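Task card 7
Instruction: Convert sequence to structure tokens.
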Amino acid sequence: MPDAPPIQPSDIVSTIDDASVPITVKLRDLHKIYDSGANAVHAVRGLNVDIPEGQYISIMGASGSGKSTLLNVLGALDVPSKGTYHLAGKLTSKQTRDELAALRNEYIGFIFQNFNLLTRSTAVENVELPMVYAGVPTRKRRAAALAALDKVGLADRANHLPSEMSGGQQQRVAIARSLVNTPRVLLADEPTGNLDTHTSGEIMKILDELHTKDGLTIIIVTHDPGVAEFTERVIVLRDGRIIADQKTPRCGGPAVPDVRALSLSVPEN
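Output:
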């Protein structure tokens, strides 16, 4: 039996040219410096970015480009060394550690490349975890977790352990977990990095539906042009700076850059 063809991006209703859409993520002259004395690392350099509510965007770059650092800042896991980051109008650098944790819990859902599931907990227990931290009552969080699993097509796997599920199913559990607190922004760090081509397409289709049907702002960090083509906008980083910020072909833009070619520096004459 021949393999199923890979899932391709479909038409998309883009907010990229709609100036009336409120800004969810606002970066101004954002820098992040890891200071180790003489060996200080300037990971992100002077970024200015607006991401409107409901936009579907990818951030690309080779290893060392600053995309992981930027993801940490966007996820309120870290604060800028210089410049500002407003999330839904809130200035993150003015928040205490507890306030940042509350901001993450209220506004942001995280999806990781390695799934980050608790191996001894069932799918539904893994999905419940953010609500445990938020103090949601047991009955309410169980109902919400089951609804989230149903949304990603895994209602029948609610009581299975991660070891009893495929990689694609584990990633769907991770997506369900990211949704249970009804976030406004989903941050996905290489969400298809450990999956085969067809399963990757299935995961991207789920993210697509969350964007088009639920209006979520989705920010994907990836090195894969095929993943970036599902989004409506791509930002490319190199050495901590933005070198491209453009529409994707899905929205009438040029081809998505191949960031693997950017990992090789061209010597100056």
